Fold this protein.
Amino acid sequence: MGSDPLRAIYYDTETTGIDPKRERIVEIAAYDPAQDRQFVQLVNPGIPIPKEASAVHHITDDMVAEAPSFAEVAPQFAKFCAGNTVLIAHNNDGFDIHFLREEFARAESEMPPWKFLDSLKWARRYRGDLPRHSLQFLREIYGIAANNAHRALDDVIVLQQVFERMIDDLPMEQVFVLMQQKKALTRMPFGKHQGVPLEKVPPSYFQWLAKSGALDKANNAELKERLETLELLPT
C-alpha cells in the first residue's frame, strides 16, 4: 500500500497586529475539503486587542475573554491537520506561518513538520496577467460570492474556492512540487510597475523600495535576491 495522497488544508489566522514577535493570534480557522471538516477557534491572546485590529476582523477583548490560550488550542489544531497534509494560506510565507511558529514556541510545544504553501506566491507566479493578487480581488476575478471578509473561517472558505480554480485539475502533489521549484523572477510582481520586466523598471523605484524597507519583508525575499543577482539594487 502506498502512502496517502497529499491533502490540502486551507487555514487562516486573525491577530492583534502584524509583528509575530510582539503580537498574538486571536482566531485560527482551517478547512479540510477532502473530509469536509472545519476548524475554527477564538484564542485569548493574553494581551489587549488594539482597536485598529478589531476594526479589521471585528474580534474584541470581550469575545476572547473566556477563550482558551493558544497553548490549549495547539493540540486540537495539530490533530485537525494530522496526516499527509499541506497547509495553505494566502500570504502564508509573509504572515501566517510566522505567527504559528511564534505561538508554538511560546507554548513550549514543537510545531508539527507540516508542509506549507503560499497561495499568494502561486497567484503572483502563475497569474501574472492580473493587476492585483489579494484574496478579495481573486474572489471577484473567479466570480465567487462575497462573504464576511477578514474573519478567519470565511477567508478560508473563499481561499479554498479561489485556489482550486487557480490550480484547475492539478494534483496537490504536483502543485506542491511546482512551488518548491525555483523559478527566477523576470517581471515586477507588484506595485505600479507590476508585470514590467525587471530590467525595464526605473532604478529609482528599486531605490524607493529599498529605502522604505519593503525589500526586507519576508514575502519579498525572492524579489530582493533576484535584484541582487541582476545587480539592480542601489549600492
In short: The first strand starts at residue 7 and ends at 15. The two ends are 56 Å apart (CA to CA). Residues 6 and 179 are 14 Å apart (CA to CA).
